[in-house]
Amino acid sequence: MRAFNWARQLFSQKLIVVLLIISIIPVLGFGTTMYVTGSRIVESEVSRSSQMAITQVRDQMDRLVSQVEKFSSQFSAQSNVMGFMEVDASPTIGSLPQSNTLINDISNFVSSMPALHSAYLYHAKQQIVLGGGGAWRITNVTDGLLTDKSWLPILEEAVAQRKLSLWITPRVFAETTGASREVITYMQMLPFFYSEMKAALIVNIDTAYLVDSVSSYPFGAKGKLLIFGPDGTLIAQGGPLANVTIAEAQTIFNTSKSSDLSSPTLKLDGDDMYAQYEVSTLNGWTYAMLIPEEATMHSVELLKKLIMITTLILCFAALLVFFFSYNVFQRGLRRISQLVFGEGRNSKPSSKDKQQVFSYHHRVDEIEYRIAGLLDEVDDVKAEWQEQLPLLREQYLLSVLFGDLHSRSVENARVKPLFEAPYFSVIVIEMDNPLDGARFASEDARLFLFSVANISKELMKSKIVGETVLTSRHAVILLNLQEDAIEHEPTELAQAIRYAVEMYLKQSVTLAIGRTVDNLYHVALSYNDALKTIQDNWFKQGNEVISYRDAAYPLNETFIYPSDIEKSILEQLRDGNAEGASHELDRFGVHLKQEGITLQLMKTYYVQLLVSMIRVLQEYEDNLTNVFGNHNPYADLVALESTNSIQDWFKNSVIIPIIAYIQTLRKNRTKGMIDQTKEFIADRYAQDLSLQFVADYFRVSPSYLSQLFKKEVGDTFINYVIRYRIERVKELLLESELSIAKISEEVGYSNAQQLIRVFKKLEGMTPGEFRESQLKYALKEG
């Protein structure tokens, strides 16, 4: 009987152990499922994060390309560039007054865009390039800007193919120091729709700017960004990883063109890499983002370790039960249950339990403490997950702005819905150019936008439903609106933000409001509206709230700027004809009205006219305060709200003051220039002195100097020089015993015969006869 009881007890214990081991099977299955599912989630998150990063780079590069092409076209359409093109083989470009203006314009154009490395304007007939602070002739320059001339053969080939513009990706740029770097070059052939190319604008973008566009990679990994041209040429590469070879780059590009991209991995230098590709529809550039596979597996490995540890502990517990009694096993299970559900964690067994399990207490305690450590580790993982929630929220909002809500990784993020109202609108906030002494400089733009975002949150608190997010250059507000708030709430909030930022941060901002949409998937349209509105508002002074409706005009609008009328206005200014300039200004205004364009677009062309008129003034005086005082003419123009007020302002505040000031300066400078020219002749009459040489010295055209000299002196420049030399010859004949040949050298003639011929023509006798006659007269008088 005792043996039977012992056998039954043993069988019961073994049955419990078997059941426990069988119960481990679902745990193993659950762990395997979690491991596979977690791996897929991580891979999906890598794909989404990489896609978001590379899409931002592509969008930023597309905007840069569009901006370069747009600014190049606007620059090329200016009147002084058109005048530059019309110059023939002579006079020399460097001697024209407008050359300095063009050089300054090119320098301002380069400094206005951080991505630009350099730019210059090329004149085809004279083989001269303006830019970099000077003018150079291509054929004989060995230093300066034009150590780089590799673009010239490409330009000639493009002209032969009748191209209007083209991108060169990439090109080696030769520095003045002897070093070289890679640039991307944009060429605009001039004039537009040419039959004969007269000039070209060459703009160089530093490839280093492209790779600096990505500041981080998914999971903080050491990744790699590569940019390819349409033909597979590697334009730029950047990132912490070592640079890829030409063969590796070709493999990556060929993979991006493969029809089967089901596998996101590829081998690079023996390592497995996750690859993400994006192709620009604007210029055909291909962007490749590479992330080491080990970075994506870190979270998966952590999950794998947790599952393995849990399974091993449970298996070890099953083996221990084989040696424990049934009662001890039951008490152990109760104790484990208490630990699992948080009851008595880190507590010690009671005195009763100690008595009952005296021989096994150290083993049960070991199990308890191991499980407690495992649960603490789970709590740490939960806390880390909570820390990641703000990042997931920001990624979710960026996905909404960029129209990437269909991404599976966004669905897996399980972010609680942020919006309940049916309508959405986007406000984009951009920092205006800081004034001297401002609290925030241009390099502090990120910190400034962070402060603006916090101010916006405070203003929206408990009043308006909205979320803020920061991009590389803007603070963006996504508003969730009820139907009755569509018309007024975005504008009121934008004005409140503008006033608050100016009050607290002492810096102005420009805010653009996009269209209202009725679907979260269409928010990207409102965001793009606001971005385009800010970009089209470049000519204004800032510190305002603008809506996409205010800046919009028909996309099919075909309008040709009246450059012929502008040219006539500038000619009247130079001639000092105020009545004629006012008449031409009226023609300019009638032309704009007949086109039926909006007042905002009219202001754009009036600003362009004002720029040209101020450049005429700057031919005589760079200091505009002498004409406009402390007023900013651009700000005064933008503040006007009707075409009649703009026309009156131009006549009274621009044309009359400019003409009056130019006439005063011209009178003073004319006398000063003539006096300086006479002094120049007196100093250098013995050298090879020509009108071109003196005009180049004073940086004026020879024809202008000739007309001015004859008007003020009453004789031509050449005749004045000849007469001055002859007077000096007379002095030398009377005061020295030098021979005629020596005197001819002293006064700048190449030989004695030339001097004798000129002297006889003016004085009616030869130099020898003049000396002899003067000596006879002196002897007679003596």
From TrEMBL:
Record-annotated membrane-spanning stretches: 306-329
InterPro entries: Homeodomain-like_sf, HTH_AraC, HTH_AraC-typ_CS
Any one Pfam family match given in the protein's UniProt record, by short name: HTH_18
SUPFAM superfamilies in UniProt: Homeodomain-like (SSF46689)
PROSITE patterns named in the record: HTH_ARAC_FAMILY_1, HTH_ARAC_FAMILY_2
Keyword Membrane assigned: yes
Source species, domain of life: Bacteria
Name of this chain's protein: AraC-like DNA-binding protein
Species per Swiss-Prot/TrEMBL record: Paenibacillus qinlingensis
